[in-house]
Design a protein that fits this description.
CATH architecture: Alpha-Beta Complex
Oligomer: single chain
CATH class: Alpha Beta
Order of helices and strands: EHEHEHEEHEHEHHEH
Strand order of the largest sheet: 3-2-1-4-7-6-8-5
Number of domains: 1
Number of strands: 8
Number of helices: 8
Radius of gyration: 17 Å
Largest sheet: 8 strands, mixed
CATH superfamily: Spore Coat Polysaccharide Biosynthesis Protein SpsA, Chain A
Shape: globular
Strand content: 15-25%
Helix content: 25-40%
Amino acid sequence: MTNHLPSAVKPVRASVCMATYRGAAYVAEQIESILIQLGPNDELIIIDDASPDGTVGEIRKFADSRMTLLEAPQNQGYVKSFEQAVLASRGEFVFLADQDDVWIPGRLGLMLDALQGHSVVATNFDVLGGGSRGNVPELKSGDSNHFLRNIFGTVVGYRPYYGCGMAMTRQQAEIFVPVPPYLKESHDLWLALCGNVAKSMVHLDEPTLLRRLHDENVTPRGWRSLSAILRARIMIVRALAEAVRRTKNASKRLP
């Protein structure tokens, strides 16, 4: 494992971008499930957000040249950490990964196939150890081309886009970053908006990861206050306008 970006430029197929914070209890199992699927021309970029526990120590136990660990000097929030990981990545395809999930075998290949014809792919998840998904509906492949409906569902809050189940092409990553500075959460909804605005989003019916549900999950498991919901929706509407602007500018740059 390297602690800084290598100076030599090598062709990289897939970059897995992970943000970690207080993940000592779970991160090793997730890293193992990712590395076993990566090829020699893939990479895993980890940004640790100044964890006060043993997270960094657990990561350093992996002596794998495909891994790069970057440590934030102070806590900055997971959205900024994911942004930094994507900016540090070099792959043709960019995957997002949470620290406490487990990748299902075959995930990488399945999502790489989907990205051959689309700029963003979103998949479903199962719950680690079994159990209910609660009130979270499943994504359906049949809704992939319903871009306006997907945008509306993202703004309103019923489309279940989770960053841990998403990936993008390098061209889309150049639109994704920098993440708008007012987005302190919901980097996954920002990516979903970008993909649907570009009319290049695909849903996969298959679950590609096992999501670990515990008390320290960043994504809320219960109902939020009305004021928090309204603030979040306003933030997403602003993000939609920015996604439209960036997508138009990117299309103008195409030959």
